[in-house]
Amino acid sequence: MELITGETQLEKAIRAWFVENKPFLNEQFHAATVVKREYSGVGFFFHITVPKTIDQIPRSLYITSPIDGPMIESKELEYGGQAILFLENGYISMLEIYAFGNSFPKNLQQFQLVDIY
Length: 117
Fold this sequence. Notes:
By secondary structure, the protein is α+β, with helices and mostly antiparallel strands. The protein has helices at about 10-20, 25-30; strands at about 1-5, 35-40, 45-50, 65-75, 80-90, 90-100, 110-115.
């Protein structure tokens, strides 16, 4: 795994998607800090911490973890991709972005987020 620095446009767009489409995540996302970004070649892992002064997300608001995020469409991705969000003990803990194919560009330039519902 390769460590990367700085928020990408894709990461920013996916975080905004979760805030807009999963309102119960808003408070935590606004207080969250990405503590480590890893690039695997087929996607990314964004390790996140949320201050414990923020309320836990009640289990009744999310059935399972990970929480499905948007599908990612791009000419730069052979088969597209997806984002999923992990929670641990009621707190956002990791955002994973991955390709359905064999590779994911380190800096995806053109993409569209699509709801899976």
